[in-house]
Write a structure and sequence with these properties.
Strand order of the largest sheet: 4-3-2-1-5
Structural class: alpha+beta
Shape: flat
Number of strands: 5
Number of helices: 7
Helix content: 40-55%
Distance between the termini: 51 Å
Amino acid sequence: MKKYFIAGILVWAPMAVTIWVITWGLGLLDGVFGSVMHAIIAIFPQQFAADLQHFRELPGVGILIVVAVILVTGLLAINFAGQWWLKAWDKFVNRIPVVRSIYSSVQQVSSTLFSGSGQAFSKALLIRYPHADSWAIAFQTGTPAKEVTSKLGEGYVNVFLPTTPNPTSGFFMIVPRAQTIELDMSVEEALKHIVSMGSVPPNNSSGSTSLEPPHHF
């Protein structure tokens, strides 16, 4: 019975976690668009507003609306007219003092993460954490800003150290390049290795990557 129970968990756990993550993301977007829809519904006359409110409260309608809005936005964003409107929207948002800092930061992060040419998670590295006698897998995310480089000097890299088993949270760190070890495993393999708490070995685990620590720390 124990063997069958564990086998069942191995089948359902990945599916359940995947569905939970997707549902959480769509639910978050549904809440944002839902607030906008409530504001739009309030504009209509009372008889039409009641019908729209009943339609909005149907199970699954919110998620379908979110998916449709995302698809339509993506369709418009890849043509010339849509790009013109996006540029006009960016100019409008960047004129708002508080909003522009948040909007531009999120825009740059999302563009870097979802763009194939970005520097996000370019390499899997070994770094010393949380003390000199232990190692952790981190991801190189680029090079330090010019002001940081002017204070620390050359030879530093930006890394993101994810937590286990939830890799969406973690620590941003600036570490000396000489005190890191580049791994042969891909970013995807390293991420699986982290999420599984080391129980899932990478495909190239039989490789000859040297784990000899640097001479200076």
